[in-house]
Write a structure and sequence with these properties.
Chain A is about 0% helix and about 50% strand. Chain A is an all-beta fold. The chains are: A mainly beta, B mainly beta.
Amino acid sequence: GNSVTQMEGPVTLSEEAFLTINCTYTATGYPSLFWYVQYPGEGLQLLLKATKADDKGSNKGFEATYRKETTSFHLEKGSVQVSDSAVYFCALSRNTGNQFYFGTGTSLTVIP
Amino acid sequence: NAGVTQTPKFRILKIGQSMTLQCAQDMNHNYMYWYRQDPGMGLKLIYYSVGAGITDKGEVPNGYNVSRSTTEDFPLRLELAAPSQTSVYFCASRVEGFTGELFFGEGSRLTVL
């Protein structure tokens, strides 16, 4: 079946630390991959996406590369800020079917 | 740009009551979805629709009903509310095609007492 597995949280980092949140997926064919961010009390917002193998999505200093050989889409940021504290969701959309598949989310807290 | 608008933002229900969560989008998206998010958990798909007059069940449809009479609106009906339906509900929409991202509303927080 189709699924997304994210690293367990919560993650706590000091400001300016390097961030990696691991995401691996299971899907047939060539899905599109997404990272969403949810700030406290808000809905989910698209952070970045990649629609084919080897694509790199980037936004607000965050990056993720679509690796088909390892079925991964890890989220990285070189220097996190307090304002990056949020819950991050990895998701996929298959090239057949109409559904999105979300990971369970990873909570990030950045301390000054 | 309004995007996806959900109402109400907050609601408290008594066990056995019914209510409708409203969702409207102004982006002319054919695909619309309802998710619930329990505290500290991920998203679970309740129902989705690929166009007016077409709806389908997701992962957790029991206790809910939907309709899609127009492209813009996708209301979610809760019948006979139960404490297990206490959750935050998110409506989302997107264009056709698997590369399109979901656009989310701000959520409706429902408490059943």
